[in-house]
Amino acid sequence: MTNPVIGTPWKKLGRPVSEEALEGVDKYWRAANYLSIGQIYLRSNPLMKAPFTRDDVKYRLVGHWGTTPGLNFLIGHINRLIADHQQNTVIIMGPGHGGPAGTAQSYLDGTYTEYYPEITHDEAGLQKFFRQFSYPGGIPSHFAPETPGSIHEGGELGYALSHAYGAVMNNPSLFVPAIVGDGEAETGPLATGWQSNKLVNPRTDGIVLPILHLNGYKIANPTILARISDEELHDFFHGMGYEPYEFVAGFDDEDHMSIHRRFADLFESIFDEICDIKAAANTNDMERPFYPMIIFRTPKGWTCPKFIDGNKTEGSWRAHQVPLASARDTEEHFQVLKHWLESYKPEELFDENGAVRPEVTAFMPKGELRIGQNPNANGGRILKPLNLPKLDDYKVEGVEKYGHGWGQTEATRRLGDYARDIIKLNPDSFRIFGPDETASNRLQAAYEVTNKQWDAGYLSEMTDAHMAVTGQVTEQLSEHQMEGFVEGYVLTGRHALWSSYESFVHVIDSMLNQHAKWLEATVRHIPWRKPIASVNLLVSSHVWRQDHNGFSHQDPGVIDILLNKNFHNDHVVGIYLPADGNSLLAVSEKAFKSTNMINAIVSGKQPAPTWLSLDEAREELKKGAAEWEWASNAKSNDEVQVVLASAGDVPTQEIMATADKLNKLGVKFKVVNVMDLLSIQNASENDQALSDEEFTQLFTADKPVLFAYHAYAREIRSLIWDRPNHDNFNVHGYEEEGSTTTPYDMVRVNEMDRYELTAEALRMVDADKFADEINKLEKFREEAFQFAVDNGYDHPDYTDWVWPGVRTDLEGGNVAAAINTAGDNEK
Length: 827
What we know:
The protein has 28 helices and 22 strands. By secondary structure, the protein is an alpha/beta fold. The relative contact order is 0.09.
């Protein structure tokens, strides 16, 4: 296995939880609550030593209390379970505003000081710890990457379960208590996340324990699941495949030790049930179990003042953020804050120097079993490079023999063959994910070596092909789930590829944004977080070949979202537009070797020409863009009348047909292809992009450039505004036009077809000289469209065109035969 087995997992305790351990949990809870309040309120005098005044309170009170005490309670008990069972554990903190609980946990288990030595275990260190929270030059208010033990920030709600289940895949020793906030539980992605239990196998995967934290309120409104009846709530989760156990505390005056005893007994009973599930799974004869989950009901803001200014606070929405917003401004609120802090008896928790007393943490796990030090929560520590097969075994052959532009190959099918053998060589550390589109996007070769993991009922091979309770392909019709699974998988030290239709990637724009922010924070500020494998996203079934599905499926805008993340030379985003099968293979190899990135690879799945040999593709990828000298007819930049540039497979096809027409008209041009979109970004903004000298060599210093681009034209303009010759770029891209139509009409309505591009190039060179040719081209555009209207298919002038460099004297057949067989694997 890639991930280590830490401790001796899945062992029953065999005895009641000791009183000493429970006393430790109670001290932990009080200490964590005190630390959490201190982070929100205090800038100095962290232990309230006299004189403790309003000047010790922060000017800006930022943070959230409402969910925090419940989280502190749960984390204390999770620590106890880890220590008693020596259980390999990572926690997911779904409630978005539980940051104080996460940092308090790391401070108490010692890992915070290990990573940040200036946060010492004394009064001075405690003051720094408090002051930095939600403070200028400090740390965020969420369970962020800055906090040891975190793999889920919670700043964006809905993905706690997706991350948790992704983390346990191929990780059979890992236990992940996933705490879900009741506000978060109202989101669509979280509602979908409950279905994840049908996509794991307890024999080969770890166990997720969902803990629904019901405290009744969001920012200002009640939460749905907190208000429905117990019977309805239990039926809902039982229908989702869980055995729910409800725990209620804090609504009366029950002694805290009694509450701890009740929860510890329940937790042990549930963990025994989990151990039984794991044991039964190893017999290979079990049906999918009803996995346990906990419904954890507590008052919102548990243990804070019950009333403030006569208004109910504990157990109401008023406890959500900062219950005492005027603690610095009014003596009355300051005194309430003082009594609140004193209620946790800090003198019993911290010694005279401000250090946490040993008895507070004696019950907690040690070493790598600590939540903040578990290697799975810093996945780069255990990441191993993929064992990649030899890329040449998958290349599209024929270019060297028959010429550039040869054949008709489905590029993503070749990637499927490559991915199949990556799984074969890395059977428990590489997965393919997809929302019911793995085969649709031509990656189905994986099924030769693995199955789709599925544990929700099986009918027969005739109806349920390639499905089994274990496998390295995961599918659910939810982009949220796929992205969440992939993030959880790579954050815990593994590798993945997932694919989606281009228009549907927009569903997870905000997830990509949040993961990029996690990577940016890591790259800039957190050297102790080791590089993790990249999120590799194959964007297929793209805008230019969604002619059959129509306008709703035509949107390349995910590129725009990712471009927003490419600042400060962090290099956490890669955007690749391979023009053919060999280029896709070269890009994929680079992506699978990369770390700390989101690699978006945009590639069509329809048969298309192969323009480059694999060696040529690799050479172009080194710089990201290159002149195709074999397609150019100008021998130098001085001779060039127009530069023909492209990025993307269909735009390249159209620009190459344009080159053919211009050549027949005697126009001198050079052809430039861009494979790595960010390679042309302003050198002033990207230190890995082409230099201005290299850019000028490709695009010339002063000649017109006609650029056919896969997505929105403004994206190219935003990338090159500081480049030489940028004013001479004429960019054609997707113009938000489309329908259910033909491939030709799709490019026509967006001014991307070869006839319009040729006419545009002629206008750029000499509109008067070529006026007659321009008129002919414009007229033929309409004739070709009418042909499609009349016949239901495209004009032969469009469909039958082949790059003139392709040989027609093929041995054993003609070019048509080569086109028909080019998709076959010739290794």
